[in-house]
User: What shape does this take?
Amino acid sequence: MDSHIIEALKDIVGAERLETALEERQCYSYDGTGQEYVPEAVAFPDTTKQISRIMALASASGFAVVPRGAGSGMSGGSLPVAGGLVLALARMNRILEIDEANQLAVVEPGVITGNLGAALAPLGLFYPPDPASLKFCTLGGNVAEGAGGPSAVKYGVTRDYVLGLEVVLADGRILETGVRTRKGVVGYDLTRLFIGSEGTLAIITKIILRLIARPTASKTLLLLFTDMHQAVALVATLLKEQTPSTLEYLDNTALNLVADKLPFPLPAATRAMLLVELDGDPDSVALQSARLNDFLDSRPEILHRQQAQSPEEVAALWQARRCVSPAAFTLRPHKISEDVVVPRSAIAALVACAEELGHRCRLPIFTFGHAGDGNIHVNIMLDKADQEEVRRGREAQKALFQEVIRLKGSLSGEHGVGLTKAPFLDLELSATSLDIQRQLKKLFDPQNIINPGKIF
Amino acid sequence: MDSHIIEALKDIVGAERLETALEERQCYSYDGTGQEYVPEAVAFPDTTKQISRIMALASASGFAVVPRGAGSGMSGGSLPVAGGLVLALARMNRILEIDEANQLAVVEPGVITGNLGAALAPLGLFYPPDPASLKFCTLGGNVAEGAGGPSAVKYGVTRDYVLGLEVVLADGRILETGVRTRKGVVGYDLTRLFIGSEGTLAIITKIILRLIARPTASKTLLLLFTDMHQAVALVATLLKEQTPSTLEYLDNTALNLVADKLPFPLPAATRAMLLVELDGDPDSVALQSARLNDFLDSRPEILHRQQAQSPEEVAALWQARRCVSPAAFTLRPHKISEDVVVPRSAIAALVACAEELGHRCRLPIFTFGHAGDGNIHVNIMLDKADQEEVRRGREAQKALFQEVIRLKGSLSGEHGVGLTKAPFLDLELSATSLDIQRQLKKLFDPQNIINPGKIF
Assistant: This one.
């Protein structure tokens, strides 16, 4: 990056908000994939106007700009693979407005997802999407990747709560999209075109979020099984009767990874776990709970059923669930982590496929995730220093994706394509779809300067 | 349209599926706006492949193609303003698949919305969007316009239930978008780019719809008021406590239009009505109903409260509500009908504005609609033979739109821009937004042959 560009960037954001030292740049070189690409500079803008000026400069000078929230993405979305400038949005972390009467919030992209929840709670309002990383990921990243979470089975995903956006286009123009109302059909749906576009079409600078009334009560149950297929079959039957707010499952390996974090000891025969949560107002939760317990009473395959008795026990259960992903590294130093999604009726087939691949490829492969919506996290553990393991890991990954497509699923339910799934895109998308998508990228970013090297 | 094109079209769909006689073409010249544009020919394809061949021919020959469902649209979306071919999709009316285990349906665009509901009911499944025209409008039209309905306050709109699409592009290529799962973030969200694009980007040929479990019980209440502002204020307070499945209001004029269709006599002092419906399973409805009645007991401004006692009474109430729009023509022969939407807290201001405009412009202006989501149908009644009334009607329309934008609302909640709102688009969308939208239109339809003359 030429020194005159560096000077121009300093002029825009202030010298103290532009980092060029290697040790600083390295801090913005990685994400949740464990891959590393060191950018040429890192800018810390705090206004839309600064970002507009940066993009105008990038267009004029041709350098790449890679927006970055917390760097917790799982598909490489924030990695500066082509160098250039990382646009670190952490300072744009203001909750600009909470409109109680109309149940909406306007936020900057750097707001940490959990911080919005904390600000809404005293007002009786609720923003449902709950990625496992909610204590550190940002709403801008959630929107860019189309993040989901355990509560999607009842409440839907990020996309379902974004009413409108402000974005900066490649040439620096500022564009407002969407509405502040539940309905709105004026013009093409640019809002949802940007959601899940993985930071490749424009820089998100403001987000209008729809909120709902906060559930005032919940109940959390742990169900244990001696066989994972029993757990999966139970989910399918349960969902015909009612919709819990979460329905998470852990297979035996996942369970062992976090067993010491659970607030209850596990019976020795335990091989799978379901975490079920109900929410609503106290009367509704009592009703749901009675119905759920009636249903569970009729299911002799449940090895053990335990209801969390205190907020601390609930917190411990969730903490354990959220630790599965990081804890996996005790198995092997590296992980190929996929968040494939299949129609609910195909979950059992997918889980069987993952088990079979583990045997065939001689690697620890375990699964856990969102049983209610078919979004299963498949984790292929390996040591990248062992070329043979890497080869077998890639083989397992490809076979997994092929099975997902055969089962009419999708390669990613909530993490995005980014770098890691880009080589497999044509398994899911037709040549026509890829052609249209490349044309869309070109329309918004003719010079390929916004987060280049992603998706395609 | 040249005779060789007519022959080529007959070759594609069969001679008996292509109409060129004036009296037949006239049947496909109008829609819910009352405007009329006679097409040069009408084709009745029944396969995607036929549509693909038609579009390839249209691209090669440069004639316009206007997709049409039931012609019930309220913004002119299906009017062939530039002549050309009307693609009548009524024969593509098959429900291709109902997947009970995964709660989804795959349908052709010509399926009548209410017919899907009827097919799902015995299976305990439910497709919530319920435009007032549901007995005759089509799902393809609903998707194209981004239709909503009274149940949006609880269940959302068409957009929230479309998982994926099959469309035919301008050049005849067939494109599949989306997924068969609740989650899915692979590539740009083409599905939602087509939803609400008013038939201007591609021809929708297949729709994958998400379904939910059918509510097994409901309760319908009629609340009467001596003042409409009391009704609107009550809605705002009620929504803080619970979410009915519908919350419709009728002002005094709307009420008088359908009073003879109501199953109860109205007290003479009645000036406004709220129609409230609760749904769910029987236990949940009992709980909601008790809470609602507690709430209503504390509101002395309610003139009269009446619960529908039988399915027939419920049907009569809904029939009355759905008749408001057609019954309006007893006031004046023509109508400017707007489906503006404002943040809930601004409903009272919008209603006051409509009343004031009625006085100022000396025209009957009345409002009714979806009080729960701020989507208010404003009806300006006039006689088009009276040029002075037309002028005053246009003045009222423009003033209304300006107020809607000032209140941070949108010009259309569920009807679309089409022809009727196109002149006002720049009140809501910025020059940058319009530029991007025009580029998108050009990307998908470089020759401007798919439903030309709409939106922009």
In short: The radius of gyration of chain A is 22 Å. Chain A touches chain B through 78 residues (CB under 8 Å).
